[in-house]
Write a structure and sequence with these properties.
It is a single chain. By secondary structure, the chain is of the alpha/beta class. The radius of gyration is 16 Å and the shape is globular. The protein starts with a helix and ends with a strand. Helix 3 packs parallel to helix 4 (69-75), helix 6 (117-127) packs parallel to helix 7 (144-154) and helix 7 packs across helix 8 (180-194). The longest helix is centred in the first third of the chain and has 16 residues, at 2-17. It has eight helices and seven strands. It has a seven-stranded mixed beta sheet with strand order 3-2-1-4-5-7-6, with helices on both faces. The protein binds S-adenosyl-L-homocysteine, 3,4-dihydroxybenzoic acid (DHB) and magnesium ion. The site of S-adenosyl-L-homocysteine has 18 residues, from helix 4 and strand 2.
Length: 222
């Protein structure tokens, strides 16, 4: 099936999402730097962009930058007065991302902060740069529940939180605890189940990134 998933993703991306030189260049430079091909698909990037526009997001937080591909998609949804902060542990990824943000013309609204997110998130709280309207969690999967809790803390009431890679080819069903990434996703789901003030759903996806999915949540009422 994955040949069809790829072909359909290409078809939809070409006609509906629409090709874009700066986004293509971000992917090319990410690959050229030897970084893994794990950015969101074009269709998913556009979904993040549309969500940001739909909620009129002015402040966006991203956990996990890589080459800045998803960052560019979301930054483009911001007004000139908007702000996006993306957290990345690998300084080399950060450098590639910064060049890509500049080429896409969004370096005025989007910035990359280097460090382990569990170290940089508390700094954001101290700085009071929030509250964020949209939080996209896409870094190491073992810490997903911690990032989600930070999203609740730094997000405004009613903030939208999106979590990538929560299905992983169905691996989410593995309750053995052997895979720390899967365990992270399962802990998120337990957390979501325990928080009455958070409404969430999880949607399975197929496409150029295989069979995976994302969780979409609203953090309380605005
Ligand atoms: N959001 C990007 C893809 C991110 S890939 C896109 O769709 O375009 C995941 C990124 O998270 C990698 O660049 C990895 O270095 C980073 N990462 C991994 N562990 C991290 C941590 N503890 N803190 C911050 N970033 C981390
Ligand atoms: C991986 C990480 C991602 O964020 C993703 O979308 C796909 C794969 C990974 O670490 O393998
Ligand atoms: Mg991802």
């Amino acid at each position: 099936m994955s040949d069809t998933w790829n072909a359909v993703d290409e078809y939809v991306s070409g006609l509906v999402v629409k090709p874009d030189a700066a986004l293509d260049a971000a992917l090319t430079s990410t690959a050229a730097a030897g970084m893994p091909p794990i950015a969101v698909s074009a269709a998913q990037g556009k979904l993040l962009h549309l969500i940001a526009r739909m909620i009129g997001a002015e402040r966006i937080l991203e956990v996990g930058t890589l080459g800045g591909y998803s960052t560019i998609w979301m930054a483009r949804a911001l007004p000139a007065s908007g702000r996006l902060i993306s957290l990345e542990i690998d300084p080399r990824h950060g450098e590639v991302a910064r060049a890509n943000l500049a080429r896409a013309g969004v370096d005025g609204v989007a910035e990359v902060r280097i460090g382990a997110a569990l170290d940089t998130l508390p700094k954001l709280a101290e700085e009071k740069v929030g509250p964020f309207d949209l939080v996209f969690i896409d870094a190491d999967k073992a810490n997903i529940p911690e990032y989600f809790k930070w999203g609740l803390k730094l997000g405004r009431p009613g903030a939208v939180i999106v979590v990538d890679n929560v299905i992983r080819n169905g691996a989410v069903l593995d309750d053995s605890g052997r895979d720390a990434n899967v365990a992270g996703v399962r802990r998120l789901n337990e957390l979501l189940n325990s928080l009455p003030e958070v409404e969430a759903t999880t949607v399975q996806t197929v496409g150029s990134k295989g069979y995976d999915g994302f969780t979409l949540a609203i953090a309380g009422r605005s």
